[in-house]
Amino acid sequence: MEKVKTYIEGFDKRMNGGIPRGNVVLIIGEPGTMKSSLAYSILHNNALKNKEVGTYVTLEQSRKGLLRHLKSMGFNIDAVGDKISVVDLSLIRRKLEKLGEHTWLHIFKSYAKNLKENMDYTLLVIDSLQVLGLLAGFERPRNELFHFFGWLKDLEVTTFIISEQPSNTMEFGKYGEDFLGDGIIHLKMEKVDDINIQRRIRCVKMRETKHSFNYYTLLFQNGVFKATKVIHD
Ligand SMILES: Nc1ncnc2c1ncn2[C@@H]1O[C@H](COP(=O)(O)OP(=O)(O)OP(=O)(O)O)[C@@H](O)[C@H]1O
Ligand SMILES: [Mg+2]
């Protein structure tokens, strides 16, 4: 089976080589757990190492703001400029508000499909599920997400959907998206003592994959994400 590597050092081997191509994977985490940076890093590394084409749809943060953040983290965005499109569909969102909420998902799909025909991207990030749901005005979220995830599969891309987890909850999905998705990667902050907080990463589920269920310490050093064993004192 073909796998998409995350290029998070130490993590792919714990997922038996990576993410099965074509999966819809949720990247779930509390505010500031580096969901956006990690998702971009997957696109960035696959573009650099495999010349794979990716699209990052930002609904939450402006394109400019996101690029500024990524540059400040040390990503050389220009090096993959011809491979990665960062599109700010919040701009469309403002123009479309007049049309009513229900047309939004339709336009999102046409846009994504068009871009697929032009760029032939194989990796897609949607940031975030909550804003997508808000814009699309889901009335029966589980039903609509079921169809949307199916639509993503037909698009023949591997999709990473960023999902915001409210602080102090262990829930992975309000609408059953945790059951609908093929995979879940959970990011969290862990209090290790009175003073120190560490980032953690864990693969909660990944269909068709024998993976570790454990939490690993997530580090970001010299522009590279790393998952290392949690050291207990
Ligand atoms: N240059 C940097 N190097 C390392 N870490 C950084 C740097 N700049 C910001 N950060 C960390 O990255 C975090 C933001 O990352 P990111 O935007 O990817 O998180 P997020 O989970 O998507 O956030 P949000 O919930 O706001 O969408 C900041 O809260 C900060 O802790
Ligand atoms: Mg974010």
Structure description:
It is a single chain. The chain has 233 residues and is of the alpha/beta class. The protein has one domain (3-229): Rossmann fold, CATH 3.40.50. Helices cover 33% and strands 27% of the residues. The chain has seven helices and eleven strands. The protein has helices at residues 35-50, 63-72, 90-96, 102-119, 129-136, 141-154, 177-180, and strands at residues 3-4, 19-20, 24-29, 54-58, 84-88, 123-127, 158-164, 183-191, 197-206, 215-221, 224-229. The strands form two sheets. Strands 5-4-6-7-3-8-9-10-11 form a nine-stranded mixed beta sheet, sandwiched between helices. The longest helix has 18 residues, at 102-119. It is globular. Adenosine-5'-triphosphate binds at residues 29, 31-37, 69, 72-73, 220. Adenosine-5'-triphosphate is lined by residues 29, 31-37, 69, 72-73, 220.
Task: For this entry, give a set of tags.
alpha/beta, 11 strands, Rossmann fold, 233 residues, two-stranded antiparallel ribbon, binds magnesium ion, single chain, binds adenosine-5'-triphosphate, globular, 7 helices, 9-stranded mixed β-sheet
Radius of gyration: 17 Å
Strand order of the largest sheet: 5-4-6-7-3-8-9-10-11
Number of strands: 11
Which ligands does the model contain, each kind named once? adenosine-5'-triphosphate, magnesium ion
- Which parts are unreliable, with pLDDT below 50 for 5 consecutive residues or more? none
- What is the share of helical residues? 25-40%
Report the portion of residues in β strands.
25-35%
Main sheet properties? 9 strands, mixed
Number of domains: 1
The CATH superfamily bears the name: P-loop containing nucleotide triphosphate hydrolases
| First-residue to last-residue Cα separation | 39 Å
SSE order in H/E notation? EEEHEHEHHEHHEHEEEE
Architecture, CATH level 2?
A: 3-Layer(aba) Sandwich
Shape: globular
